[in-house]
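=== Structure Prediction Worksheet ===
Name of assembly: unnamed complex
Input type: mixed (protein and possibly other molecules)
Chain count: five
Listed entries:
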Amino acid sequence: MTSEPNDGSGNRPHRSVINSAAYSNGVRVADIPIADLGDAWKHSDRFLWVGLHEPTEKVLLHIQQAFGLHDLAVEDAHNAHQRPKLEVYDDCVFVIIRTVKLSDRENQRIEFGETHVFLGPRYVVTVRHGSPHSHVGVRARCESTPNLLAKGEGFVLHAVMDFIVDQYFPVIDALEAELDELEVQIFSGKLMRSVTARIYHLRRDLLAIKQAISPLIEVSSRLARSNSQLISDDARPYFQDVHDHVVRIADLIDSLQQLSQTALESNLALISVGQNDDTKRLAAWAAMLAVPTMIAGLYGMNFKYMPETQWVWGYPVSLGIMLVSCLILYQWFRKLGWL
Amino acid sequence: MTSEPNDGSGNRPHRSVINSAAYSNGVRVADIPIADLGDAWKHSDRFLWVGLHEPTEKVLLHIQQAFGLHDLAVEDAHNAHQRPKLEVYDDCVFVIIRTVKLSDRENQRIEFGETHVFLGPRYVVTVRHGSPHSHVGVRARCESTPNLLAKGEGFVLHAVMDFIVDQYFPVIDALEAELDELEVQIFSGKLMRSVTARIYHLRRDLLAIKQAISPLIEVSSRLARSNSQLISDDARPYFQDVHDHVVRIADLIDSLQQLSQTALESNLALISVGQNDDTKRLAAWAAMLAVPTMIAGLYGMNFKYMPETQWVWGYPVSLGIMLVSCLILYQWFRKLGWL
Amino acid sequence: MTSEPNDGSGNRPHRSVINSAAYSNGVRVADIPIADLGDAWKHSDRFLWVGLHEPTEKVLLHIQQAFGLHDLAVEDAHNAHQRPKLEVYDDCVFVIIRTVKLSDRENQRIEFGETHVFLGPRYVVTVRHGSPHSHVGVRARCESTPNLLAKGEGFVLHAVMDFIVDQYFPVIDALEAELDELEVQIFSGKLMRSVTARIYHLRRDLLAIKQAISPLIEVSSRLARSNSQLISDDARPYFQDVHDHVVRIADLIDSLQQLSQTALESNLALISVGQNDDTKRLAAWAAMLAVPTMIAGLYGMNFKYMPETQWVWGYPVSLGIMLVSCLILYQWFRKLGWL
Amino acid sequence: MTSEPNDGSGNRPHRSVINSAAYSNGVRVADIPIADLGDAWKHSDRFLWVGLHEPTEKVLLHIQQAFGLHDLAVEDAHNAHQRPKLEVYDDCVFVIIRTVKLSDRENQRIEFGETHVFLGPRYVVTVRHGSPHSHVGVRARCESTPNLLAKGEGFVLHAVMDFIVDQYFPVIDALEAELDELEVQIFSGKLMRSVTARIYHLRRDLLAIKQAISPLIEVSSRLARSNSQLISDDARPYFQDVHDHVVRIADLIDSLQQLSQTALESNLALISVGQNDDTKRLAAWAAMLAVPTMIAGLYGMNFKYMPETQWVWGYPVSLGIMLVSCLILYQWFRKLGWL
Amino acid sequence: MTSEPNDGSGNRPHRSVINSAAYSNGVRVADIPIADLGDAWKHSDRFLWVGLHEPTEKVLLHIQQAFGLHDLAVEDAHNAHQRPKLEVYDDCVFVIIRTVKLSDRENQRIEFGETHVFLGPRYVVTVRHGSPHSHVGVRARCESTPNLLAKGEGFVLHAVMDFIVDQYFPVIDALEAELDELEVQIFSGKLMRSVTARIYHLRRDLLAIKQAISPLIEVSSRLARSNSQLISDDARPYFQDVHDHVVRIADLIDSLQQLSQTALESNLALISVGQNDDTKRLAAWAAMLAVPTMIAGLYGMNFKYMPETQWVWGYPVSLGIMLVSCLILYQWFRKLGWL
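=== Predicted Assembly ===
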């Protein structure tokens, strides 16, 4: 195993090469330094599996020379922020997949990354960009089933894709949970300013995931129908399985997008209803202030002959009338549902 | 008939195997224990039909070994929550369909389930997940028409699909009835907070059904155009018939989705109209309080020379003026339609 | 002509068989009882045209046996509420078309019906469901042009389809007129509660028609490109003509759907504008009450030294000030367009 | 040149036949009466170009007999209000195009018309319906370039289509200008009732043009890829050019449709903002009336011991307090942006 | 290098011909005057690369005659405002691409231009319209890698397209930054009139870019799959790379369009919420004025027997009651979140 020097920009030493091993009959037989990959590939029939993480240009150059990769694919592999795609060159398949992960960070739900895979006769190179899960687990799982690994390169590509696609499900579950929570808030009757912002951010996340997953529909479908010698006939159902998962994820996102749109519109309707309710409540209280004010105004008039004003009980009776009229109004508004 | 031991998680004993029988010329001739299915299939030309319900892994393993099913299909059959699909392997057709049922439960209109069907030469295995209707009725109906059943595996698949697809219609009828009821409420002139929530939940149900039914359009269409030996030529019009039903269901859902969207928007418009009506009503009553208040204010002024205040009839006349002006206002607002 | 006994459910005797006649060289030569259709078809080269209206099962059985129709098609023909479609069997074409008619009934603009057509060598059977127009006119028109009728079965199918499709135009004209009327109301400046409900019902009608007509696009297109011997080469331009009409109807509906959506949104905007106008008008009147109330309040203060209150003209002058300030406000609100 | 008698319905004599001429090597050699077209076409190799305007049935019959046109095409040519289309018969191409023109009339921005073209070996017949521009200019332009005209029928069709399609651009420019003007009004801060109606009518116009132009995309594309002998190989790039223009027009309309939708929604948002602004302004003025009213109310109380009421300066000081509190409120609302 | 005389319309002398050079083995060997291009092309095997900027008709005529270009393409090249397209003539490929640039001008974010490319055997002609970046950089970069330039015409076309497409990214970044800024404003809780206008203009810009980039998806895809001899096999992956970029740009725009739509709707919802908040705040203050006014009204009544009015402490106590009730209301509204 070769450890490349750190790029120097970070504090933690960065390891470009995570793994570089040769397999024979599905069993790991040797670690191959990056510089020796070319010889190892040409002069033996062992299967090579190299795992890189944000590799330096130097490492990529070694890889390119070892397996004779196309300039453009190597250039892509060096730059993240590519669109998921499948590129078929003469003797090499190049796949880009976007990876997702629920984020621990504040203000961000999802972290995106990218995995690029070069697949050729007797070699697989995976290049990982961004923080999401390492593929160490994939390698360990593959190594624990040597008979599958012995079936060749196609199965490694499948294992990596399957692993990455499965990571979408918890993310979508989290977004579904978020929408369920928003539903409760929207229909709770309380008007919350934050709901609109949360729906907006949910929709932004859904759009981002959709852009990551939709190109995979075609990629996985092409792999399942591929004529390439690199994908053996019995590997195709497995890619079809990946394809089914991708389509299901796309379906779920589609559904969430439509539901969140309806939620946004329902929210708007309920804001209006809530506004109306508030207006009515205000009006009811205003009426209960206005009626005594009017009655008081009456007895504030300066007519010479106002019999009530001369009565001993005039004042308390007028107060009583005010109180009673307020109570009647209160009951009435109660019945109308305004209070 | 074999009865598998309960999985142990529930209280009620759970039967994995509902039915496992051999048919000859469309007539049930024997019940075959799960463990003997492989022999029964290989060493006789009788047709085998196995019905499972949320089977244990052990049962599925028996089935897989008996008929040599593909790993991936068996894995799918064990896990529910798959997308409806049709998978064609060399000598086996694997179909997943989602089933629906009107729910008795509070707060939930629709229950979803899944039925997976393995169809091969001289055998059909149906695996049911979730609570909706058992297929016992399908088997009974098939057994009552031996001549159809004698036509082979394809007809059993058709019978199961036809049965499941027909269960969508009452569900859609229920949603249509719900929308009709909502229409009445929306246009009744009363502002109901619950209407928005009900439209939202209607739309959520429609989305869920749409996701269950739309993949069936392609599944049924592929079965109707299939070249597989498992689907005989004279079975194809029957799958075309299923296809027509599926397309009609999809059409109905589409229509309900668009109508419910319009209902949501109409609701929003009518909430605004209702708000306006309330504002006007409030304003009318406010005016009828404000006018006497103003008149009372006039006669509350402390001018030395206010002839009216000295009149004996000043007070009752002023009260009369207030009353009359209120009545005039009332009539006027009435005419304007504000009250 | 055979008259089938009434089904018994209605008050009016119901005639299943409207017409059942044989044609030779485009000329009607005999009426054939339903029971004799099979013989008449097999043992002569005359062309048979049968017209049914909501036939009993017994009548359909006669027809099926006479021409050897497929079970599924006959089952469809017995049940209305099918989706328009074209089914091609070995030697028979089965077409379902939905018919429309402007309704006389209260609360319903459009009545839908269905016409099913069986077309085979030397026979056409039309089965009509629902109330819309009978096809008697079609038969009469066909019989008046024997040379066209002599061209064969395809031309009869065309005549029926052309007749049914042409019935869509007056319905769409009525919906267009409705939208024009709604436009006038929306932009008239008056706020009408009923407008929203009418747009909603217009959109519901449009959706229903769209569902009836859109499957016909493919049906008519397939007939125009058909290789079936039943549709002769020179009949194809005629089906292309039907296809053009269907596409035009679909276009018109599409356009009405989009316009009515815009109308719904414009309505919403104008409701808000109207609300604002009302608020301003109310505020203006409130101000004209509040100003005199405030002035009256001033002179209601009990200060010992308020010179105005001692003046002889104090009271009328204060009333004058109130009046003048109200007039000034009135003019001002007028200028602002609030009144 | 033949002049057909007027149909009699209008006041101005109506000329069905605008032009009917024979061309040899691209040069006009003779005017041919309608009645002689058949002979002229059969017995010479000259190219015939006939221009009709809302022809009578008699004229169309002459034309049909002369060139052996299909019944359905002639029927179409007699009735306007067809959908743009391209119909290919054995030896004749029939094209329908909708024409547009900016209208001079009040309350209508756009006038639509139709041009039908019959194109066969050595003849072109154009039939114009509705008022928009005559094709006299097209003929003049073609006659001025005999070498192009000599290339045959296809070039005449191209010239007509190019001319008609180019007429769409000024109409779209006018609609763009209308939207620009609406933008200014929407964002000007003034609330105008008319804006909503104008957006609605703009959208109606856009829909009408879209329906006129979109079928042309396929028509022009089919002409550019046509295998018909009537369209020579070197004419195809010219139809491709027409196709490019049509697609560009469709693009522009699409863009205007989306922008006008956004404008409608922005308008709605700004109506709400405007409403809020008005409410705040009203509230500010209401507060400035309510504060003095309350203070006046205080000093209207009849307590025996209210020292202020006994002061000589009590009254002016209270007025001063009212004035100052109003000024403070005014400044404060100013700062808040409510006034 | 030939310098054409200025067109005369501008103040600055305008150079139609930016560059006109011959290359041999990827190295610039000579500058060729426009008038000599035809000879240079026919009588040598050197590769010619001509760069024009808003060329005069005379210059274009020279070019057309030199390389035998099609009339229509030359006509297009003279007029800007074309839709991006790829036209394949017998021995020439004609490409139109729209260019974008962030604008320095006030009130305009983006400037559009057009680049037309003629590509034939051993020649490339680029015609630039509008202000955006010159291609001098492209030429310089190509000249610095003679080995790539030596590969032929296809690589020059790729270099130009790659350069133009890369210019879209900073523009989209700017629009993304604008949307991020708008998000902050929308959810800041402050109601800003300008936000709606800014979303509108953002959406207008997005539509304009979308119209510029979407036709490129097909153009670049066709170039990547092209069979033309002008595009060599090893050039295709490079066009596929351009295609990937174009699709990614289209994806980003799509995403921004959907997000900005959601932003518009969220803005609308928050305007309503804000309106409601303002209404509540107003109502709270109104209540705090109305309560003392009512109390003052009470003690303004002229009853003979009102014990409080006779008390020495009556006045200050009543003031205290008013103050306390206001404070209680203030606290209460505070708790309700209305203030």
